[in-house]
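We emphasize that the prediction below concerns an isolated chain of 150 residues; any contacts that depend on oligomerization or on bound cofactors are therefore not represented. The input was used exactly as deposited, without trimming of termini.
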Amino acid sequence: MESSSLNAPPSDLIGRPEVYPNRSLKRIGTWFIILLLATIFLGASVPKLGELGLFDSGFTRWGYPTWFAKGIGMIEATAAIFLIIPSTALYSAIVLGVVMIGAIVTHLFFGEAIYALIPFTMLLLLTFVAWVRRPERVHTMIRRRKVGIE
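Result of the prediction step, given as a token string:
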């Protein structure tokens, strides 16, 4: 009689869904990439928004007006904040991806191919975030939480 009670699962585990360890590792990795990107874009926007004009000479050399650096800084800062919110991460990744495509084209056009590697890497990471945070995936995750699957 005692052997059967030792083999039975505890009563608090009955009816509980299976735990998928890969999902939590995937979730941690995804959040790490998202927070890393948000930090990088927020950090890159601060000098563009500051009064020192650290990026003004570069933007002038590339033929852009000086106010353009502040505009890009505002876009980067705003999109970096919205990148953290799962329901807006896709749209934020798209906006930041367009900015990164502009940076890549600018660097390549002016013969600075080595400097295009950084925005290209950011574009790849943003593509990953956009894929993971696409709307149907977000809605599925929300539905699973309400039902109690995850």
